[in-house]
Amino acid sequence: MRKLLGLLVVSLAAIALSGCGYNDLQRQDEQIKSSWSEVLNQYQRRADLVPNLVNTVKGYAAQEERVLTEVTNARASVGSIKATPELINDPEAFAKFQAAQGQLQSALSRLLVVAENYPQLKSDQNFRDLQSQLEGTENRITVARNRYIKSVQEFNTTVRSFPTNLTAMVFKMNVKPNFSVENEKGISAPPTVDFSKPAPAPAPAAK
Question: Is residue 1 part of a domain?
Fold first, then answer.
């Protein structure tokens, strides 16, 4: 009899949790974690391209020290932030992470714009391959980030909606921070570059 009553209680609890949105919250939370993992993978892919890209540009445009330093420092700033799973529950840490990634994207944009001044660099096969990989990675970042944005929007809507907001309150499931798309566009907008200055003449070939 006790066993029967125990099963009945468990069944009623399961039905109650399902009806109040608990299962939906869990499913959406797992989707956010999965989407966030993919965002991190693509950001890491971009960061991994930076050293080779900087070294390749340096081989043709060592005098562009300021831009090269900006890219290197921006990558270091990204690496200094521990992108743990808990980060997506901390709005302040999430904002710092987003700002660091935006600064790296902006620095890379400046680097590619400056590269336009160096025909030999632009024709270098290694540089072209790296540029192609970077462009592909930026596209994958956009796709991954959009999936994350949609996942968080769905979760946050559930957390704020009645009666699931009561369930979220009981289990301490709060709204999660999301990417500020408009702010990212502003951060990553490439600067205006003065092309009126002639590109440095290539060094004479050794005899």
Answer: no
What is the residue range of 130's domain?
22-187
- Alpha carbon of 30 to those of 75, 115, 154: distances in Å? 29, 42, 12
**Which spans in the chain are helix H?**
2-19, 22-60, 65-79, 91-115, 119-123, 125-160, 164-170, 181-187
Contact 192, 111 (CB under 8 A): no
Q: Which of 22-26, 57-61, 117-121, 189-193 has the lowest mean pLDDT?
A: 189-193
Task: With respect to residue 195, please indicate whether it lies within any of the assigned structural domains.
Answer: no
Q: Residue 21 — pLDDT band, cuts 50, 70, 90?
A: confident
CATH of the domain at 176: 1.20.1440.20
Q: Looking at the 3D structure of the chain, how many domains does it have? A: 1
Any domain includes 8: no
Q: Which tens digits make up the pLDDT trace of 176-193? A: 999 975 544 543 444 333
Distance, in Å, from the CA atom of 183 to the CA atom of 106, rounded to the nearest integer, reads 12
Among the residue ranges 2-11, 110-119, 195-204, the one predicted with the least confidence is 195-204
Rounded distance between C-alpha atoms, residue 128 and residue 121, angstroms: 9
DSSP 168-202: HHHTT--------HHHHHHHTPPPP--TTSPPPPP
Q: Are 199 and 118 in contact (CB under 8 A)?
A: yes
